[in-house]
Amino acid sequence: MEIHKNFQKKIELDYFFIEGTLPIDSNYFINQIDRGVTEEGNMNGKTNIKSKMTSFRYFNNDSNFLKLCNNFIDVIDENIKMDAYELRDAWGFRCDNGSRTLFHSHNNYAWSGVVYLNQHPQTLDFPGIKQKVKPFPGKFALFSSFLKHGCERHSEDYPKYGLSFNWDNILAW
């Protein structure tokens, strides 16, 4: 065997991270999540979220969620230069006592986001850019999908609720 090159270096990448708040009907979405995590096809404990989760596309056609997305689309279109994109996945989660989210990224997508539905001390951490998002109703983060993020285990007596979503470039055929 001959090795001709072996590089182990870091490179800088352009990324974006946008955090804000917006009005949200938390009760509607919490009720939908509580229903979705009991339905066939839920992803409870099967993903990086080590707690309860709806199916990956549970909210893709939900009119209330799609209205909410118009706000995110406006922010992205006004602030970030990127090719045309479309919603690919939109799911809800309920992180109960003892749960955590393994640190991961969504490399296969253009951008991702989260919006929280209740106040909770378990933060969403982005170690590579030294950012933490503290949940409360309507708090959101939009970010480059390759950014690694996750949550440490929590021991609160009440769950954390939120919605997560991935958007990707529209492929030219």
What does this structure look like?
- The structure is a single chain.
- This protein is α+β, with helices and mostly antiparallel strands.
- It has one domain (19-169): Sandwich (Jelly Rolls).
- It has 2 helices and 10 strands.
- It has helices at 26-36, 63-79, and strands at residues 17-21, 52-53, 85-95, 101-104, 111-116, 124-126, 131-133, 139-144, 149-151, 160-169.
- The strands form 3 sheets. The chain has a 6-stranded antiparallel beta sheet, covered by helices on one side. A two-stranded antiparallel sheet has the order 4-9. The chain has a two-stranded antiparallel sheet with strand order 6-7.
- The protein is globular and about 60 Å long.
- The N and C termini lie far apart (41 Å).
- The mean pLDDT is 94.
SSE layout:
Blueprint lengths: L16 E5 L4 H11 L15 E2 L9 H17 L5 E11 L5 E4 L6 E6 L7 E3 L4 E3 L5 E6 L4 E3 L8 E10 L4
